[in-house]
Write a structure and sequence with these properties.
Elements lengths: L5 E4 H11 L6 E6 L2 E7 L1 H16 L1 H17 L7 H8 L1
Parallel strand pairs: 1-2
Antiparallel strand pairs: 2-3
Helix pairs in contact: 2-3, 2-4
Length: 92
């Protein structure tokens, strides 16, 4: 996903947990009183993140390349972000 993560209140999260666990790709920030207190992600999103971290651990050059891309992104002033999948595709 290339947009900022959706924000879900803790109350909403508790009330809809059974719905959320059905989506293996879901990712969002959990908030309480407007402040971020955690992140929820489905198993597919988690596995993608773990695979990406493994790429970085096993290939430090990839980490440097992705940091350069991130630095250029920050300087661009764009409001959109990049997903872990975007970085995986970039590094292949």
């Amino acid at each position: 996903m290339s947009d900022m993560l959706e924000r879900v209140t803790i109350t909403n999260f508790k009330g809809r947990i059974k719905e959320y666990v059905k989506d293996p790709n879901i990712e969002f920030v959990i908030t309480r009183s407007g402040k971020s207190i955690g992140v929820y992600m489905g198993v597919s999103a988690w596995e993608t993140m773990q695979n990406t971290l493994s790429l970085f651990r096993n290939n430090p050059e990839s980490l440097l390349k992705s940091l350069e891309v991130h630095h250029r992104f920050q300087k661009s002033g764009k409001a959109e972000g990049h997903s872990l999948r975007d970085f995986e595709l970039l590094l292949k």
